[in-house]
Amino acid sequence: MVDALQSAWRVLRPRGLVVDFQPAAVYQPRLALVADGVRREVGPLVRVPDEDVVAAHRARQKAISEGLFASVVSTHGAVRTRYRGPTELRWLLRQNTNWVMDRALERRLAAMWARRPKGAMLEVRRTYSLAVLRKRM
Questions:
Q1: pLDDT band at 2 (very low <50, low <70, confident <90, very high)
Q2: DSSP letter string over 4-25?
Q3: Strands 69-83, 121-135: parallel, antiparallel or unpaired by DSSP?
Q4: pLDDT by residue (tens digit) across 76-94?
Q5: Is 88 helix (H, G, I), strand (E, B) or coil?
Q6: β-pairing, 46-47 with 69-83?
Q7: Mean pLDDT of 55-74
């Protein structure tokens, strides 16, 4: 990420902007069952901090502290994605190798999924970090 911000700094015009959007450094994804506009919490997935994401956050701070960029806006929020069932959720877990569903959550999900209303979907809530940076002269 340091290289990406340095590269962006080199090609930006003076006072040009960079939008840095990435997962929050530390958060726990939340799993829910959603049906008929009602969201029922299943529980948190275990997420081991991702070293690359942590390094990207450090790189952002370093680029600001070294004077390459000034922070214009810094915020965070949530993204919710929906899946048609446990099979698609397992696909998501394979894509995020630092996420784990513990046995208690698996049992709770299986019980809730077995008695789900028609049309129910699974929802995963993740937290993101967003920063708008302005190139310093």
A1: low
A2: HHHHHHHHSPTT-EEEEEEE-S
A3: antiparallel
A4: 999 999 999 999 999 999 9
A5: helix
A6: unpaired
A7: 95
